[in-house]
Structure formats: C-alpha cells, structure tokens
User: Fold this.
Amino acid sequence: MKGRVIKRGFTSAAVIGSLLLAQRFLPDFLGPYFTTILSYCCFNIILAVGLNVVTGFCGQFSLGHAGFMAVGAYVSALFSVYALPALESSFPLVKSFPQLSFVAALLLGSLSAAGAGWLVGLPALRLRGDYLAIVTLGFGEIIRVLILNLDFAGGARGLIGIPQRTDLFWSLGSSFVAVLFIARMIQSSYGRSLKAIRDDEVAAEAVGVDTTRRKVQAFVIGAFFAGLAGGLFAHHLAFLNPNSFTFVKSVEILIMVVMGGMGSITGSVVTAVFLTILPEALRPLQEITKVDLRMVFYSLLLILTMLLRPAGLFGQKEWIDFIPARLAACLRKSRLVKGWSL
Assistant:
C-alpha cells in the first residue's frame, strides 16, 4: 500500500511538473496565435469526451451540449466578476490565492452545469431517439435566450471584465484529467452498464440495470465536463457572448464525437484536435483564392468520412488496438495505460 501511494505521488508530481514546464516554455516557443489554438483544442477535447459519455457510451442522442457549456461559462464568470471582488474586500487573504479562487469558479460553474444536466435529464431521458434530441435542443436554446434577457449577465452585448486566468497549465491539465477520469470510469462496472444500455436497453433492464438512473448519471457527468470547458473558455477569452453557445456549437461537438467514433475516447481526442486546427490550417487558402472555402472543405471532409468510415475514424477502438498484439499485452499490464478504456 505504501509503495503504491509513493508511485502515485511520483506520477502526480511528474504530471504537474510537465504541465508547469509546458506553461513556462510552450507560449514562448509557439507564440500567442498557436498557444490560443492549443487552448481551444483542449476545450474541445473536454467537450467531446464529455458528450461521448452520453452519446457514444450510453447511446443517448443529445443536441444541447452547448447549453451546459453556457451554464458553466456564465456561472463561473459571474462568480469571478461579482462575488470574488466582494470576497476579496471582506477577506483580504482570498486575494493572496488567485488560483484557488479560479478553481472555486470552475467548480461552481461545473457543478451548476451538472445540476442543469440533472434537471433536464431526469424527465427527458425517459424519452428516446429523436424525441430526446428535440428536448435537449430546446434546452440549449432556452439557456441562450435566457442569457440574452439577463441584464446582469451582459445580455446581448456580452459580459466583460472576466479575469483572464486560463493558461496552458489549466487547459492541458483539465483536458488530461477529463480524459483520464472518463477512461477509468468507462473501464469500471458503471461504464460497462452504460455500454449495455447502448447495445440493448431492454436486455440491460432485464439483468437488473436501472437504465433511467444510469442515463441521468451519464448526462450529469457529460454536463459537468461541458461546464468545466465553459469556465475555462470564459476565463481564457475574458468576454462572453450568447452567440458563442448556439445550436451550431452543439452540432460541432457532436460532429467531433461521431467522426472520431462513438464509443472511442481516442477518436474524440484526435478529431477534437483535428477539427479545431483544420479551419485555421485552411486560412491561407482564403488569402490565395479571395474566397472563404474553409467550410466547403470542412463539410466535404465530413461527407467523405461518413461515406468511407460510417462508424467513425476509430469506431469503438482505442489507440492500443492499433499496435502489435505483444506490445499491447505488455502495455495492458502496465500502470501507465491501465484504465484507458482498453
């Protein structure tokens, strides 16, 4: 037991040290532009793996993920804009620990999004298929319209004055934690029950799985990570506008999950990075042709992927399934990859 604790402590220290080194040297090496793109890749990874829990592993079709992201973004931002200055004036010690205040804002936003996921999921997840998609789509639009009419949240003009706390340490670290947590969760008995619901809900009920409860829990977990991504996004951009959380944003996240493979964490990570970089990589084409053809190539790529790989790029496989069998067997025994949905 003592040796295990020491190993875990050493691993945690190595991860934190790597993140601190990345924060120290990567911005100077990459420059502001590529650092921003890397941060957006991290946000999209968190969103994609969170939605994959609901859609890929549990088999529930959701179109309201941007709504949960909006809840997390606005709740964390409102805490930083309104509540935090009051706390700092009443308790000067709070001002000495800005990172702890940032963590509190992220947790508050994530838990608020999870609460919204529970409120929506409890009645909605008794529905299936298209009906569930319509309900979640409606929820996302309700959240956006509600924010538009809240004056203290900035309304249509947007919320300003948000402290810019998100850096590469928090972006990379949060995406790493999200992927690791979901990978371990899917490998557990709870994750296997989600897969059973996805494959055959009637059979899962027949063997004693409380399908409604499991689906609501999956919805809450997905919403929590959407709220986390929203909080990081808000404190990176230092400005929020309701137009950042439209139906189109939900579709973009869903595309990342479907294109990577529903039920593949590796696929969600790879496509989240690829589809974040793609529009920027095609920007020089716009300068050459004087016409913005980025979305044309983006759409064409999606069509070709669905025609040639209807199950997604990775299907339900992970990265370890693509390496030689002997090496994979050794890695499966290693603590380095144990828990990555193997």
Summary: The chain has a mean pLDDT of 84. The CA atoms of residues 63 and 134 lie 8 Å apart. The longest helix spans residues 2-57. The chain has one domain: 31-333.
